[in-house]
Structure formats: C-alpha cells, structure tokens
C-alpha cells in the first residue's frame, strides 16, 4: 500500500448556493455551504468529518460523489480530477467511490425488492455475468450479515438496522475502494448503531476500504476513525489524528464540541466550555474568524482577520491564532 | 393497503361495480343488442358469431344489412341476442314509440331502438374516455417528469406551457379545432387527449420534485444509473398514485367533453350512436318524447358520477392524512 500520496485529495473545494433572485433578477447573496476546504485521505484510512448541523458536511459528501457540482476547487481521486470528468469516465469512477446514506427509510426505493435493486446495479456495471447475479447477491447479503432470503423482500419488511445493511450491500455491489458514509448510524437505535459501526470496520478490513465518515456524534467518531476533521460554517477549523484531537484539542470550537459530550457520571462537573448561542447564518458569515461571536477567548483581531488553517505540530492543523503557539498536550 | 382502504368507502366501491358493469356492457354490445344473430344455421352450414365475424357468403347475399327481414327457410335456425335490434336499424313504422314491452326505452324518430343505441353508445363514450385520458397521461407524465427531474430551464419552459394551456378555455379550443378537422371518433380522442395533459403534468412534476430529493434517487445517481432509468424505473412508480386519481377524474371529464361536443354537432359523426349524439337527435322531440332525453342523459350522469366517485375513493384511500 502506498501511503505517501493521498488517495483522495480535496483542494480548495467550494460550494456556494445563490439565495433569492429569479429569472430576471440577480441573486441577493450566497449560502457558503462549503468554503475553500482542503484535506487529504490516504489509502486504508478512516477519516471523520465532524461538525454541527449546517456546517456543510453533507455537502462535502455530495460534492465528492459528484451529485452536485462544485463552485470552485478540485477533488483528486487516485490522481484524477473528479470535477473535470465527463459522463463516461465518471461512470467508471462510480464503481470506485460509493456512498452510504443517513436515512435508511428514504435511501431504499420502496417499490423495488432487494434483488431487483442489486441486480440492476450488477447488470448495468457488468460486475458479474447474468447467470451469476443471484449467487453474487447472496454473497453480498452475507457480507453485510443478512440471510439470502432477504433478497425477495421489499424494504418495508426490514428494520432500520437491516435496511442500513441493505444500503451498505448496495454500495458494495460495485466493488468500491472508497466509501463515503454520510451519518451512517445517526438515524438508528443506539443498540443497532454499534452493530453497524462494527460491520463497517469489519468490511474495511476484509475489503481494504478507505472511509470518509461524516458524523456529528463524537462518540462514533472516536470509535471508528484514524483522523478527524472538524468543520464549522463550511470551513475546516481543526484537523488531527483521533487520539490527539480528543486529548488536546486546539481550536476553541473543538473544545466546545468535546466538552458537550455527555459523560456517564452523575458527579461530573458542568462542561467547562460551551459555544454561546446558535451557529451564525452561512449567508452572512461573521467577519474575521467565523467562530468569534461564540468564542469565549475572542479578542479584537479575531473580528477582523481570518485565521488560516496551519500546522501547530506534525499532524495537527488548527485555524486559531490564540492557541497557535500552544504546544500539544499542554492543556492537560 | 390502498385497496383495503378503498373498500371502506362504500359509494366508491359501488361506483366501481357500476363501471365494471358498464365496461362489460360496452365490450359485449354485439352479443347484447344486435339484429345479427349470435349463431346462425342456414342452408346446411353453421355460422358461429356472425355478429362479430363477417362471413363472405352472408355478405354476398347482403344479409348483414337485412337480418331483420330475413325469413328462415325450413331447417334453418338462429340464436338472437337478447335485444334483437341493431343500433342503426331503422323501422319507420315503429318511430317515436314510448317505452313498451318490445322497445324497453322506446324508439327515436326513425324507429331505432333507444336501448340498443345506448348500449352501443357506451362503447363510444368509454373508448373516447380511455383513449383520450391515455394520451393525456402519457404526455403529462413525459413533460411532468422532465420538468420535475431536471428543474432549471426545462422546468420553467414546461411550467409556462402548462400555464398557457390552463388559461385557454379547453372546450372552445376543441370546438375551434374540430371545426377544421374531419369529424371522426379518432380526432375527438386525440384532441381531447392533447388538451387534457396539463393537470397530469403538474401532478407528476410535483411528485418528481418531492422524490428527487429522496436519498434513494441520490443513491441511484451515485451508482451511475442513467437519468432515463432513474426517472422512469425508480421515481415514476413512486409517483403514479396521484396520477391514477387524476386519470379517473379525467375519464369523467373526457366522457362529458365528448358528450358536449357531440351534442353541439362537433363530435362523433352521425349515425354513430354516442350518448351526446343521442341527446342531440332528441332536440326536436323534447316536448313529447321524454324518453329520448331522459335515458341518454341518465347514462351520462351515472357514468360521470361513477368515475368521479371512484376517483374520490382512490384519492382518499391513498392519502394517509385522511385515515
């Protein structure tokens, strides 16, 4: 495995949505859903993207899958620029990058049996010859922990966890090497969440998959990922290996997120740091550091200048200048 | 599920039975009301179903046009339909009879049996309804799904087109068009169909807009399925519910439209017996021949009401909010 060059390289990726405006009037502004973000994912890795709702995580997932077109920036996958692919090449890339969706109730077509859903994909991409399709579907279902007789049933006959397994089987049908999981467990019961996460990790080992997991649940993130990217208002504010991020977060936003994790200890003291108020509107992001209105450490320069994401140690990047010179672990 | 809900609505279920009965009568018209026999044994030869099959030797004797006056010679026999009058069979001696034993719903000014004409008229009225709605639904589905799926300028163009069609009073548009076209049942079907699609298109567009956002559609796109496949194999089956409802109402509308056109003389050319045509022919006799007006009018009323009731039942059965 070559771990020097990134498998997926997101470079300056940007998605602005125009607000208002019609056929004859100019739009009144933009929602900055994703605002110039860059990150790398290496082969075999699990990278998590965390952030509040509205921070642009899902938009990143859909941009990588080319379900929506970026306003700016590029996405390199295995050296190819996905944003410049024409439909033919795009289809072959679709066999390599797949996505798992959040809501197992809307992500499966209610009028198709599991068999017809999977057979269609196998047939269109010519994964296996026609007479082997049934066997292959059986194998796929086994892979995600379902019985072969699930094949001839409709989605409504399954539980949420089983549906999510079907969604995973569908994504795996084309033999992908890169999986984007958009909140893969947040719509499931807590007891089922662990099963699905363990399944994902098992599959990663068996099939040598690379994951980009999008989540707002830091417990999930800590459980599965090697590296974490923290997003706030369309921008990445911190990036670090999982252990490092949870042990010594640098950005005040990350600290706020971490201190908001409920602890199973009735004696625990109140969170030390909480972000104040609601996330601001991405149509009119605050000047300077976009976190400054909610940041307890904010100073005058924070309101004027935007801090850039920069390395504070070997693998640790953060977009905050107040703590820029604070070495790791010192906060403990 | 939907069927179960539908059955709870008694009037709609009854209306559905009425429609099935009407459909049966329409399909079986040659066996119910005809002067050509169902089975004929003549001159040592057996003719099966001469009422729907044209035998060349019977044709050569010009028998088809004169079955009512045909006298069987010895050894010949025949089985007649229960109502032994064809819809076009004139008998001036019997003209303008009020309902009686032989002519249950009376006769018209040329002595034609009204019941027979109405039975044959159900064929015309129902087929105009189904074909016209079929055309409207196909156009509506294609335009609506394009608009809803692709959005942007496609949507704008289709929507403007729909609005344009909706502001034009359809009935007068059809009358104008029919004035220029050769009158035939096909022209009526096509013209009614071509003006009936905007409602369907708008419904389908709305459903597509809703379904397009669903994750299963995104998943299909991520899996590299073609747009046509996603539109027609994945989204359309999920969008058909409201279309069925609207098609049922559309059927009632199309039947009413055809009757109206025929009544005004722009419809099925005479002597073909459509229900509207029957009404039109009764115009001069309204004062005393009430049966000429009442029965065709009743037929139109019952059919249109039945389709509307079924449509309502379907709509209620499919709308989970009404459960």
What does this structure look like?
- The complex is a heterodimer of chains A (332) and B (323).
- Chain A has helices spanning 57-64, 87-94, 114-124, 133-143, 160-172, 190-207, 218-224, 242-247, 252-259, 300-304; strands spanning 8-19, 29-41, 46-50, 72-77, 80-81, 97-100, 178-182, 210-215, 227-232, 235-241, 310-313, 316-318.
- Chain A has an eight-stranded mixed beta sheet with strand order 6-7-8-3-9-10-12-11, with helices on both faces.
- With 332 residues, chain A is an alpha/beta fold.
- Chain B has 323 residues and is mainly α.
- Chain B has helices spanning 2-8, 10-27, 29-32, 56-60, 114-150, 152-167, 170-180, 185-195, 197-212, 215-222, 227-263, 275-281, 290-318, and strands spanning 39-42, 45-48, 77-79.
- The longest helix of chain B has 37 residues, at 114-150.
- The model of chain B has no long low-confidence stretch (mean pLDDT 87).
- The A-B interface holds A 23, 62, 65, 67, 90-91, 94-95, 98-99, 101-103, 106-112, 120-121, 124-125, 167, 170-171, 173-174 and B 156, 214-216, 218-225, 229, 233-234, 237-238.
Helical stretch count of chain B?
13
What is the makeup of the main sheet of chain B?
Answer: 3 strands, antiparallel
Largest sheet entry of chain A: 8 strands, mixed
| Overall spatial form of chain B | elongated
Total E-strand runs of chain A: 12
* Unreliable parts of chain A: none
What is the number of helices of chain A?
Answer: 10
Strand order within the widest sheet of chain A? 6-7-8-3-9-10-12-11
Strand residue content of chain B: under 5%
Coarse structural class of chain A:
alpha/beta
Portion of residues within helices of chain A: 25-40%
Q: Give me the strand/helix succession of chain B.
A: HHHEEHEHHHHHHHHH
Quick summary:
The complex is a heterodimer of chains A (332) and B (323). Chain A is of the alpha/beta class and 332 residues long.
